[in-house]
Amino acid sequence: MNRTVMLAALSVFLVAGCDSDPLGPVASPVITLTVNSMNASDIEAGIIDKDENISTETGNPWGEFIRQAEGVCAADPVAFEVTSASLALDAGGSSGVEALDEVLTGSTRVIFRSTQGSDADATQVEIASGTGPSALVVTATRTALTPLLERLQGGDFHVAVQGETTRQEGEDFSMDVLVSFTVAAFCE
Q: What is the pTM for the complete model shown?
């Protein structure tokens, strides 16, 4: 057997032996969701917390990403990993607030939830955290997101902003928070 044939056979063997390893990643575009009308009614014991449902409707960035990943994978992705996350104030949809740090004054987290935050049985995974809204560090790994895999595949989950605040219940303000993140999807 000549050397070229042996190398070709070895290459086929090595590639075939990698079938159990996940492929990917399939990178998402920046996905932005607006958590609408965070206000004093979302404050309890110095924590403001509100979420919004993400969906897979046509034109929805998460839905488009899932369809792209399914096309590359030829199946549902087997894992996800958050690669970036940030928050911004939508000034046009806010009143009584000119900057996020007027409301989010301490520890801040972005969370993926299986259902609405008021559901005590919701599975929650922190995807990013930091002190204040501008210093978020991604914390979600593939392993951490595993409990939400089916929800992520189906686009049936909530994105939450939760943070310490010095604002009081009953204060007159409302803010729309833009949550932007990127994700990697992995194939089997």
A: 0.83
